[in-house]
Amino acid sequence: MAVFPRPRQALVIASVVGLAISAAACGGDDSGSGNGDSADCAAFDKYDGNDGKKVSIYASIRDTEADLLEQSWEQFTECTGIDIDYEGSGEFEAQLQVRVDGGNAPDIAFIPQPGLLATFAKAGKLKAAPADTKSSAEANYPADWLKYSTVDGKFYGAPLGSNVKSFVWYSPKQFQEKGYTVPKTWAELISLSDKIAGTKEKPWCAGIESGDATGWPATDWLEDLMLRTAGPEVYDQWVTHGIPFNDPKVATALNQAGEILKNPKYVNGGFGDVKSISTTSFQEAGLPILENKCSLHRQASFYANQWPEGTKVAEDGDVFAFYFPAIDPSKGEPVLAAGEFTVAFADRPEVQAVQNYLATPDYANSRAKLGNWVSGSRGADINNFANPIDKLSVQILQDQSKVLRFDGSDLMPSAVGAGTLWRAMVDWINGRDTATTLTTVQNSWK
């Protein structure tokens, strides 16, 4: 799972001011396409000929983050005359299927699950990406990343936003006051957890409730531990069902995750016992760190946007994040990542124009300047990412020495990755044993 509401009102104000200036500059005469000034809109000439056309986009991005998203293509719409009708939904995965089946598909969707993307592609519902989109994607993203939106040899969409999932959030101030050191290995992470538990405090807080998507945060734990215990090659076999879901290697990874998540001495700081994890919303799960009710919260880079307004996210701030430690750093430091892919259910010229633009470095840099966003595009200028955790994430994604793997549950067939696996992880948190949990998912994979 990749994208959720991200309340950051302060950045919106700054963004609106900046874009008001941009829109004013682009709103001169009507001599060019759309309503933009011909000089300022020169970069958009390639999208001419679509003035007055409408393109609908549907995704899971909501609230303040949706406002930033719409601002990011404001100059494009001003200059081309294309009207983008955007809708974000908390029930995106389920409702997208309903809309497609009902003949009411959006023109474009931002799909964070390659497994769901493949389901639509194999059903003949998606349109292959335009040649310009493919060329731009190939020039700016790793080949491995583009495999996730390629089905049966056809490329369907470029990446949009990205996030890094291998992070643990903490309070730098609390660590300094209590003499805690950021752990570099799994052994050091457990040692720190034991040290905090020894003070009669719960070191970890966690939450996996997310409406219809409840359970997805627990799958991230399993995926990160699969990368660390079994390695990237076995991970690749696992997500494609090259090995059974209840293979002993998977059990090892889940049990290692359970060293923390199912340890009553470790969780759930600020909320209750182990079972409270299943009823605690992922948005609220890390907040006890600010109240010194827990010290550690494993969650992706996008969690930077869940902290209350006024929270300083920085190495010397109220909260920051460190890399979720490898078990044996000498064997490399794997990184779990995720993101959305821009795919189309229609191939009208105006739809292809929008899809082409969203694949470009121009768009990536336009969105980056607004804040609260991460991109793996090599054409994205690191200096355009102001938020420290976003900048760190982009550096990781652009580092070609890193072993990156996409979110495993998102890669699996949607009925498994976004279905039986999510539910099975909830049951596991609530007391089901590892063997039964994994066998349940294995039996559902057809």
From TrEMBL:
Keyword Transcription: no
Residues passing through the membrane, by range: none
UniProt entry keywords in alphabetical sequence: Signal, Transport
Domain of life: Bacteria
Alphabetized Pfam families for the sequence: SBP_bac_1
Keyword Transport: yes
Leader sequence segment: 1-25
Family affiliation: Belongs to the bacterial solute-binding protein 1 family.
Protein name: Alpha-glucoside ABC transporter substrate-binding protein
Taxonomic source organism: Phytohabitans aurantiacus
